[in-house]
Amino acid sequence: MTTVFSAAPDILTRARDLVAPAMRAAVGRLDPANERIVSYHLGWTELDGSPSESGGGKGVRPALATLSASAAGADPRVAVPGAIAVELVHNFSLLHDDVMDGDTQRRHRGTVWAVWGTPSAILSGDGLLALAVEVLLDEPTPAAARAARLIAETTRELVRGQTEDLAFERRSDVPLSECLAMAGGKTGALLSASAAIGAVLAGAPDQLVRALARYGTELGLAFQLVDDLLGIWGDPVRTGKPVYADLRAGKKSLPVTYALTHGRAPGRELAAWLATVGENEDIDEAAVLRAAELVEAAGGRRWAADEARRRLATAERALNSVRMDPTARAELLDIAHFVVAREA
Q: 3-state class of 241 per DSSP?
């Protein structure tokens, strides 16, 4: 495998610069109340509406979309509607996730539901989802229609994954295979669509679209594995969330599920503790620290890190299975390595 990258690849900045004007124009279609909320959520403005320097997310999905058009030999501008669509769907899911998870902080700022209330967060998220399809259908072409269908199917998979994730919190018998399938919907589906939608809009051959989609699926699983590791052991300064946040919430994340199903004595002790989490509003700090130690002792931390690298290797093989623009291939790999090496 090639060298792991820790710094953000240049393509993230280039894609952000390419997509940003059209993204702002798209959000400007919303009614004033929802435009204000979404602008704040995206990091463009402060609560009072003044410009913000906080910045938004990493922009991985728009970068994948523009690169997939380049992979097909097309101008990356062809992918801009797709880049906007996947970013809108991503933020629709974040607005709703914060409500479902009860998270009051995102990127070191108050979440929308915590500031404006749950109904506003739900409605703003719904508005973004509708806007994603609208942006794609601005040009009534067969490629745009295929891209819109891809977004619809992807959203359905994302909802499936999120539904299963919530259901797992009430179950004590979640096998690792089900947890991986859940992550494939919750995270993998949208990264898969992001990696394919530019090629779809460029009218690329099905073989290339499928290879890019497979790369995105594996990247999504690697992304979720790293996200789950950060949800337990991440630096709060970088992640914007408290240390051991996922354990406090009793989440059966991938490393936790591995520990529960493969950890023997540590896994049994962890299962007993998790069964009490929902009953306790005030969780003892020492107990949470012990739970993190149990996940690690049961092999959950090491397995998740190793599995993320395995998924990265599979994503790389998918890219190497078809002919594509070599520069685009290299930058797609840069993003994949960055995702696995990130600290937030």
A: coil
Residue 106 in 3-state DSSP? Answer: strand
What single string gives the DSSP state of each residue in 19-75?
HHHHHHHHHTTS-HHHHHHHHHHTTSB-TTS-B-SS-----HHHHHHHHHHHHTTS-
**SS3 helix, strand, coil % of the chain, rounded to 5?**
75, 0, 25
Q: Is the separation of the CB atoms in 337 and 3 below 8 Å?
A: yes
Alpha helices in 234-325 (DSSP H): 236-239, 245-248, 254-262, 264-277, 285-297, 300-320
> Helices (H) and strands (E) in the chain — how many of each?
17, 2
pLDDT, residue 280, reads 56
User: Which residues lie below 8 Å from residue 170, measured CB to CB, with a gap of 6+?
Assistant: none
For residues 188 and 318, what is the distance between their CA atoms, to the nearest angstrom?
15
> What is the domain partition of the chain in residue ranges?
10-339
Query: What is each CA distance from 264 to 150, 256, 317, in whole angstroms?
Result: 42, 13, 34
Burial class (CB in 10 A: 0-12, 13-18, 19+), 124: buried
pLDDT tens for 163-181 read: 999 898 888 888 999 999 9
Do 196 and 215 touch, CB atoms closer than 8 A? no
**Coil, strand, or helix at residue 253?**
coil
Write down the pLDDT at residue 47: 94
The CATH classification number of 10-339 equals 1.10.600.10
Q: Are 220 and 191 in contact (CB under 8 A)?
A: yes
Amino acid 75 reads D
Residues 282, 274 contacting (CB under 8 angstroms): no
Global pTM reads 0.92
Q: Is the dihedral of CA 12, 103, 130, 195 positive or negative?
A: positive
The letter for the amino acid at 9 is P
Separation between Cα atoms, residue 251 and residue 259, nearest integer Å: 13
Task: Quickly count: other Cβ atoms within 10 Å of residue 334's Cβ.
Answer: 21
